[in-house]
DNA sequence: GACCGATCTGGGAGCGCTCCCAGAAAGTGA
DNA sequence: TCACTTTCTGGGAGCGCTCCCAGATCGGTC
């Protein structure tokens, strides 16, 4: 039987009948196809509006072999990363961009080995057109597992076993570390130390590297001037306390993340050092909900999570369109936002 | 033509041919349907494994009228809520539960009026089987907009314009406020004040109400003992400073969220009050990444975001199964985790 | 051995859509 | 006017799956 029964959701057939044209013409009109007369197009559009028509995504993707959905895969083996506002910003921005382009965002978290298996199976299953993957830890097996997938994948950040044959969009963390160090040197500081992030994090490695290079270029040996604060406020505070004991004459700190910088400020306050008079402090991330509210407001290396995700999506869409973008590893610039702490 | 061409993804037809049975039998075997001989089932399962078969979701949902996807809709008009670890925990847990049950999670953020329109359209479009909605702000127009949707919807928390005809799963915030106040009273404190959350938040209203009731029942007028700290650490610090000026003799504080409690501790430290000797402090949320790391570790009203989402999903699945769960507003109990701050 | 119910199987229809193709209608130039 | 291209239209096929139904097979009972 025809599906002109009311009550149920209207189909393309219903719209066509209402507009007095055929199903094919209705389809063309709705999909901006060429070779449709103005009269027909307007009639169909009006019919669709009147009937409250909305196309059946399943039927459409059955024939187009496109789902219109993109997976956002977040791999965070440790639950503690939960507190990071970075992930939420990332998701929000990704959602915004994808939604504007008419795509849906399917979020998946990967924690255990089981998750990896399920995720690869899922991607192979053709449920999504492509995937955006953020896997910030060095040892993470996920990137390798996804390398040979038939679905296009774009990575955010530098996956541990980097580069070969995968598309990545990363911040220039080396330049960021260098920027922070140079800024402190320009302020005339020489007793510069760093609270670095866990070194199983490629991003943390890069930030440290940039900082080391800048110091070395100015004739200062970076040896023994770094302590890890494993990206938390408490860790930053502890690391700073250790550094103060080892280098009582220090006059500047580069903390490789904002939460660690907050811990650094706390430790400095506790030990009676004034910021920035006695010790200058630079953070990293410059997250808007964090840096301006600290006392004093924090100078920080600025990065734009929205920008990263935007580039990732651009590459993915290029890949989906059948192109082969030339750049395999894209580095996004970072800048320095100077506030009262330096 | 038959689709036995290799290279392409295998279809059910291919699996059936490989196993030497018909498409129907293959379908029954894979879907745990009854009336399949053991022989046939094993042959089909082996064939599916050998060929790396994974069913085409689009084709399946075209006929079952089920997408296997659930939308998680987060409505947060203000961008500042981003820092809240609650949302991330919620998503993670929701994902975990849904993935285990074979459902996909589609995340949508709603901020602007445009988003609302797009969201309702999307839900009407039949892209998902149901939706979980978290809209913690009182004035939020989203819940009303979703009320009359044909897709089943379950709300988390108490939407501003509560109750009628919607399924909600909320914490017993009134009991939580009462619990905090009672605990402080039992500790012998009488100069009790509160740093409450923004009152455009039903949860904040409820917490304050419970606290007020408990005080009143013990003959203490709650009048003039509350200051809003709008759910941030900085706000909590400022509110506490105002309270100290107004009530120099206070000896206990109930902060309606952990971040605000952190601000309270900071203000107390700054003003030379010892915790818990001079002033006892109780927080709310008891987020594992927060309360134990504060100095001193914070006594806090404990709630389990995972539990909330679990109940929401249970109700939704009931709704999807065609049942009509009797309870329209479910209240989850909260408890008190006592640590060194009281 | 005949009968009957339970168990199992394969073919056909159809979900709502897009795409291909044949043919109608309209436009163009001699 | 006629041939010929261009624009537009509708019917048919088919995407991969589930579900229904008719028929085959199997066991047990009289």
Question: What this model shows, in words?
Answer:
- 2 copies of one chain form a homodimer.
- In chain A, α5 crosses α12 (305-320).
- Chain A is an alpha/beta fold.
- In chain A, strands 2-1-3-4-5-11 form a 6-stranded parallel sheet, sandwiched between helices.
- Residues 1-6 of chain A have low confidence and may be disordered.
- Chain A has helices at 12-19, 23-30, 38-51, 57-64, 85-100, 113-124, 142-147, 173-186, 202-217, 233-246, 258-270, 305-320, and strands spanning 69-75, 104-110, 130-134, 153-156, 167-171, 192-196, 226-228, 252-255, 280-285, 299-302, 329-332, 335-337.
- Chain A has 3 domains: 12-64, 434 Repressor (Amino-terminal Domain), CATH 1.10.260; 69-172 and 306-333, Rossmann fold; 173-303, Response regulator (Rossmann fold), CATH 3.40.50.
- The interface between A and B is large, with 42 and 42 residues.
- Chain A binds a DNA duplex (30 and 30 nucleotides) through α2 and α4.
Structural descriptors:
Rossmann fold; 6-stranded mixed β-sheet; 342 residues; homodimer; 12 helices; alpha/beta; DNA-binding; 434 Repressor (Amino-terminal Domain); 6-stranded parallel β-sheet; 3 domains; 12 strands
Fold-level CATH name of the largest domain in chain A: Rossmann fold
* Major β-sheet strand ordering of chain A: 2-1-3-4-5-11
| Structure class of chain A | alpha/beta
Instruction: List the domain count of chain A as a whole number.
Output: 3
User: In total, how many beta strands of chain A?
Assistant: 12
Mean pLDDT of chain A: 88
- CATH architecture assignment of the largest domain in chain A: 3-Layer(aba) Sandwich
CATH class categorisation of the largest domain in chain A: Alpha Beta
CATH superfamily of the largest domain in chain A: Response regulator
């Amino acid at each position: 039987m025809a599906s002109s029964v009311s009550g149920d959701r209207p189909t393309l057939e219903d719209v066509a009948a209402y507009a007095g044209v055929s199903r094919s013409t209705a389809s063309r009109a709705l999909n901006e196809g060429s070779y449709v007369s103005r009269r027909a197009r307007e009639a169909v559009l009006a019919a669709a509006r009147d009937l409250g028509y909305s196309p059946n995504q399943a039927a459409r993707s059955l024939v187009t072999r496109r789902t219109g959905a993109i997976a956002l895969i977040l791999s965070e083996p440790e639950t503690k990363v939960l507190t990071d506002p970075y992930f939420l910003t990332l998701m929000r921005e990704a959602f915004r961009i994808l939604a504007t382009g008419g795509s849906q965002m399917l979020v998946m978290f990967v924690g255990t080995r089981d998750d990896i298996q399920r995720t690869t199976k899922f991607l192979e299953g053709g449920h999504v057109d492509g995937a955006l993957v953020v896997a910030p830890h060095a040892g993470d097996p996920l990137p390798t597992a996804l390398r040979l997938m038939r679905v296009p994948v774009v990575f955010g950040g530098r996956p541990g076993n980097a580069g070969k044959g995968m598309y990545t969009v990363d911040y220039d963390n080396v330049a960021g570390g260098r920027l922070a160090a140079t800024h402190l040197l320009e302020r005339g500081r020489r007793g510069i130390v760093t609270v670095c992030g866990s070194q199983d994090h490629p991003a943390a490695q890069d930030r440290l590297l940039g900082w080391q290079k800048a110091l070395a270029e100015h004739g200062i040996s970076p040896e023994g001037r770094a302590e890890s604060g494993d990206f938390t406020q408490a860790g930053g505070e502890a690391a700073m306390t250790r550094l103060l004991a080892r280098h009582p004459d220090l006059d500047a700190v580069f903390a490789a993340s904002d939460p660690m910088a907050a811990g650094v400020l706390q430790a400095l306050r506790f030990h009676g050092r004034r910021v920035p008079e006695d010790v200058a402090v630079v953070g990293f991330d410059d997250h808007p909900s964090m840096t301006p509210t600290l006392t004093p407001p924090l100078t920080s290396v600025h990065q734009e999570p929205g920008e990263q995700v935007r580039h990732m999506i651009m590459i993915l869409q290029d890949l989906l369109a059948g192109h082969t973008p030339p750049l395999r590893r894209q580095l996004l610039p970072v800048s320095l936002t100077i506030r009262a702490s330096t």
